[in-house]
Amino acid sequence: MTTRLFHISDVHFGVENRAALAEVARAVAEERPDAVVCTGDLTQRAKHSEYAAAAEWFAALGVPVVLEPGNHDMPYYNPWERFTDPFRRYNRLRQTVPGGFVSEDVVLVPLLTTVSAQTRFPWSDGVIRPPALAATLAQLAALDGDPRTIIVTAHHPVLGKDDTGPNPTIGGDAAFAALAEAGAHAIMSGHVHVPFDEVRSRGGHSARMIGAGTLSTRLRHGAPPSWRVITVERGGVIATELRTAGAAAVT
Ligand SMILES: [Fe+2]
After folding, report:
1. Most buried among 31, 33, 35, 141, using CB within 10 Å?
2. pLDDT, tens digit, for every residue of 108-120?
């Protein structure tokens, strides 16, 4: 048996790439993946209108949707709400998208890397706070002995883009080692708007890092809009196929 996931990320409703989204929706209708997984930055400024557009698009897919919040998904123009209830709008969206993803091949375990404030600028980079990591590790511990492939879903890549440069995600190196040691086969993420798929190691433990790119008009480093098809079998067997959207983005 295999389970097929469409991994999308950084849709940024408000500055979304309508042509790229139409391509993804068409592929969903034709290929009927078991789930669409979006690793955050659903909106550009977390406006109600942007969340409404996101809700409409995700609901129309007609397959289970798995979401993770990104740094853009907390209120930007309403600091009170940002600090008192940063995920209220996101959680409301989550209740409207089709749920129910369960697989005999793969388990998706969330890791929160998004915080409403931190002691550095910009606030957009990832932070893995001890309670967030503990919550994910507790879920991984409960899966001990489970034959299914285990994939952690996060918004920010847990490691920097290579092993020689800095890691913009605070706590990321230690988190990666702990997640891999706890049995995570892969970590899916977004945020950087550039796709990647590579095996990385920390502390003697390895796991795959898979990034989807963006479906917004905020293109970076010359990477076109993209998403990824991830086919999973039990036991850590993961095949991926990167797809780029053909239409030129408007910036
Ligand atoms: Fe982001």
Report:
1. 35
2. 999 999 988 888 8
